[in-house]
Automatic annotation (TrEMBL):
Keywords: DNA-binding, Transcription, Transcription regulation. It comes from Breoghania corrubedonensis. Residues 303-348 are annotated as: Disordered. It comes from the Bacteria. The keyword Cell membrane does not apply. GO terms for molecular function: DNA-binding transcription factor activity; sequence-specific DNA binding. InterPro entries: AraC_lig, AraC_XylS_family_regulators, Homeodomain-like_sf, HTH_AraC, HTH_AraC-typ_CS, Tscrpt_reg_AraC-type_HTH. SUPFAM superfamilies: Homeodomain-like. This is AraC family transcriptional regulator. Residues 305-317, 325-341 have a biased composition (Polar residues). SMART domains: HTH_ARAC. Residues 217-315 form the HTH araC/xylS-type domain.
Amino acid sequence: MLDNPHDLRDSAKMSADPFADILKFANAESLVTGGFTAGGPWAIRFPAPDKIKFFAVVKGHCWVSIEGEAEPVHFETGDVGLLTVRRSFVLASAPDVEPIDAMELFSGAGRSTTQLGDGQDFAHIGGHVLLDPISGRLLTDVLPAWIHVPAASPQATAFRWLLGQLVDERDANLPGAQLASAQLAQLLFIQILRAHLQTSDLMLAGWLRALADPRIAPALRLMHGEPGRSWHLDDLAKACAMSRTSFAYHFRARAGVPPLTYLAEWRMRLAERALREEETPVAAIARSLGYTSESAFSNAFKRMTGNSPQKFRNASQKGPRENPSFRSQDTYAMRTASSPANDLVEGA
């Protein structure tokens, strides 16, 4: 059914960096949306965001209380947080301070920064991450609800320079500041994910957990580097310096699926993107992904997605599809339009 093509088309060519592949595949785009300064006793309640949120303390300290979490978390200067689910949260100088509604605080037209209370004991900067409404699930499905990277952790070293630059860009308002801030925010998002990759002991089964295991990562790099190659279990096990049995067991335990199932699913992800975004003939997509015939590819695609390639392409070209829920009650709009309520509090 599969051959070993050497001239893969651009739609199937990927780097040997699965982490970068999936961030690009999810079309992750980070933006700085504002922040606030505060002094004295203060507390702000933010509504559940419709995008992944990140925020950092650039001066002082605060308490972060997230809906559904048992205890508030103390944030010091340089601490960074990433909220990946749709839950409201409170930032406060102390857990017992009654919060005000962020809607009121950021209600001015175009308002992204504000002052709360007397003095400037505390400073905060925040933003969000946009994702493709469909392919973004590949990232969100493997992330926990909440990531906190303390400034004291070894992984936070890179944050200090990034946060300083973000504050400078916001305050200086120089030409190109918006673009520069977006690039810095993207680096911050990547560093947060890297910190999670290096420190989490309770990572969900999936590609991210597999990538965190140095014994399994070589196989992922091979499959992402040449997705159209006819990989065999022996090849992948040898690259990881493991026996077939040991490799298959460890890969499934980390990734949640057997190695060749992972490869088949990744090929179908690439096929979906090509069908949505390109005019490449189905037969050419099939060849680029290692299938010897269009019919073999079509059967595999329908078996995995429930639709034929042509039917999938026709449906995709009718317009943006509704974003399917990726976490039951924690669903995001991702790259679709924000709700009016959240547009008022993007300073979070």
